[in-house]
Amino acid sequence: MNARKYLALTRAGIIQELQFRMGTFITVLGNLIYLTLVYFLWRSIYASSPTPVVNGMTFNDTIIYLVLATALFNFLEMYLVWNISRKIQSGEIVMDLLKPMSYRKLMFFTFFGDNITTFFLTFLPTFIVVFILTKGAIPVGTNLIWFVISVGGALLVNYFIDFFVSTISLYTESTWGINIVKESIVLLFSGATIPLVFFPEKLRVVVKCLPFRCIYDTPLNILLQKDGYTPGSGMWTMLGLQLVWCVALCALTGIFWNFSVRRITVNGG
Amino acid sequence: MNEAAIANAKRGFSFYARIYRKILVQDLKSKMSYRADFIISTFGMIMTNTVGFMSFYILFKNFPSINGWNYHEMLFLYGFSLIALTPLQCLFDNNWSLRYSVESGDFIKYCFRPINIFFYFISEVFDVKGLGQLVFGVAVLSYAWSSLAIPVTVGTLCLLVLLLITASLFMIAIMNFAAATCFWMLRSGYVMILMFRFKDYARYPASIFDGLFRIIFTFVIPIAFIAYYPGLVILHPDNIPLLSKLSPVIGVLFFWLSYKFWMLGATRYDGTGS
After folding, report:
1. What is the ipTM of this complex?
2. Residue B260 sits in which domain range?
3. For testing contact with chain B, the best of A22, A176, A203 (most B CBs within 10 A)
4. How many structural domains are present in chain A?
5. Regarding predicted confidence, which is higher, B27 or B216?
6. Cα-flanking dihedrals φ and ψ of residue A57, to 5°?
7. Which candidate in B35, B37, B228 is best for mutational testing of the A interface (most A CBs within 10 A)?
């Protein structure tokens, strides 16, 4: 195992990301405006509700959850499907396939630098601001450690799903369509736009069997110490489930990619 | 007056309509050669709209009304906003590739044609899958319309079309501004992605905002005009706010400003040197 080449890729990713400080600034500013939209919408939703607690979530809980989900989205979303399918269409992918490491690892470590940078530049500041604004509504304890571990799991599950969908685009030569299907399904069924507890019972049963919940629902509820996600009440099951999905998706994407990459057709050079 | 000047003077609407038709036919022909992509894109369009509708539905399962607006009124705004976003999707989709062509230097080709740069660039792509969204929007709006028992007359239908055109101008203007930022900064893709996400909030009544943010979402990022202000004209005809009445004028103004901003960027573009 030669870790140096992976480290070099990650480092390059960090340096590249830091080059575009203007982009980061715009992202942070835009996100603040976006979050005010989320805030106003849910404030009026809760104001119209007859009870202050809906499905075990208070207004504060919901807002913390959604704000951190948005921050997590910025940190996790690397537009991998978009990038890979563009490379497939342009033929640039050939150069990457020639490199002496598996394509899956190459892509992962290329974007991992991005992940690290955005974690510190956008997720952490958002977290601190939310923590101060809500005056300690986020419980602090060992849950922070489990949260970080769970975010790691979320990162991997998200990566494997993205990679799986990118592999499909080897067959379809479609960029936009594939990407939009993936994005809308993942964002809804992972609980990124609406917390899963709000889902109707029947739909929730289905969503529980899908891997998407590992990405937003699991880490955020562990952080907020919601019922069913505390060390005493099923956190281990949730973390175990994440691990199972990681392993399963890893195996699945590996097989699917190795099978599909032989089919690749690149026009011209 | 020399010949060129005479030719220039003749370039009215019909000249541009003829060119648009020619470019459109070429674009559709090239799209037909990627049939799988077309089918998947249409499917993708249906999927995002279905998922969007599901989240809307889930929300209303938990909360019977939002800020005094009931389910059907909200559905009205939802359908209205989908239709109002269709012209952006169908006609102005090429804005999404502006930053690629600016960064790669390909954009220079648009500068050398003797026609309006904005027109030429935008007309290059007609996005067929946007029509799927239109169908979805019409279905939602008709359902809400009949559930609310709003009378159907020739007058209201004409008014509806006018309001929809007005509303569409706002989102087109927002995206023109967002796309044109690539003339000044690198990695401007984030600006477009962010602005495009705002459209999902256009379907909620702007009365949920207050203070400074009411002003921001009305005059700076005018999402309140995409469904709320125009929608009020039909939903509450006996109590129409001034901003609703002024919305066509403001819409044209916003569009004109975004066009000027876009052109400002285009004219100061000097290629990548390669």
Report:
1. 0.81
2. 34-267
3. A176
4. 1
5. B216
6. -115, 130
7. B37
